[in-house]
Amino acid sequence: MSEHFADIEARIDAVHKLEAVITAMRGIAASRVQESQHHLDSIRTFAATIGAAIGQALAFLPRVEPDAGGTEAPYRHAVLAFAAEQGFAGAFSDKVFDALAPLVEPGCELLLIGDRGLSAADRRGLSVAWSAPMISHPDQATALASRLSETIFRRAAETPLTRVSLVHAVPGGTGLMSVVVKDLVPFDYGRFPLSRTAVPPLITLPPDRLLRHLVEEYVFAELSEAIVLSFAAENEARMRAMIRAQENTGDTLDTLTALSRQVRQQDITEEIVELATASLTQGGSDA
């Protein structure tokens, strides 16, 4: 066996090992996408319950105007964006930054989730006011949502925020992923129809205080949903990248296998020629 043939066989073995790693990464990503869907169902049920409660609380109060986040204070805009936490997700973070680009304005604060987004922000010359890692499992979504809620409300208390925008990816399923841009502040009360019943619900808090707590809970639900959707979209992007990588490794294996057969055939032919030549030479010597 020639050294060239041995080198090709070694490359084939290495590609097989790489293919096994790619297959495992694809399987993990697909599993996380499925787990995310189960968590989304629970989060949306919770959000619907809080939304109905907001509709009931609004019935106790005169018309509530959208929360302007402090109309007398200077205009302050914060953008909360969710980028990738890990690699092999294709252009995931770039698509998120493309979507938030129109929102970036002088004095805008960028709050970033996902460590891979830090390098993307640096490439675009964007300053990050605050950042945190993305979750590694859907079970961690509530903890991160709580941390984000506390951060947003604390910053708003220190210096009123006029507007808070949310930018996150949404998995596309059989299609391409999309990026959603929506406002958390000012809070849109118009989304919740008033609930007027013959017997009003019993409450133990003043209506305005109750409504404030419910709004905080609804923002928490919106953040939880954004986290899980972004997590699912990142893993879906990784799954698609692994599918493309599998196709590439398959093509590479086909090429190397064909080359291996060709080289092996050349080696066999050379061995036959050498044996035939040696036999002829030996026969001539005997004569």
Automatic annotation (TrEMBL):
GO MF terms, alphabetically ordered: proton-transporting ATP synthase activity, rotational mechanism
The entry's keywords: ATP synthesis, CF(1), Hydrogen ion transport, Ion transport, Membrane, Transport
Membrane is among the record's keywords: yes
Main subcellular localisation: membrane
SUPFAM superfamilies: ATP synthase (F1-ATPase), gamma subunit
Cellular compartment(s): Membrane
Gene3D superfamilies per UniProt: 3.40.1380.10, ATP synthase, gamma subunit, helix hairpin domain
GO cellular component term of the entry, any: proton-transporting ATP synthase complex
Topology in membrane: Peripheral membrane protein
Similarity comment: family membership: Belongs to the ATPase gamma chain family.
Task of the protein: Produces ATP from ADP in the presence of a proton gradient across the membrane. The gamma chain is believed to be important in regulating ATPase activity and the flow of protons through the CF(0) complex.
Record's protein name: F-type H+-transporting ATPase subunit gamma
Organism: Salipiger profundus
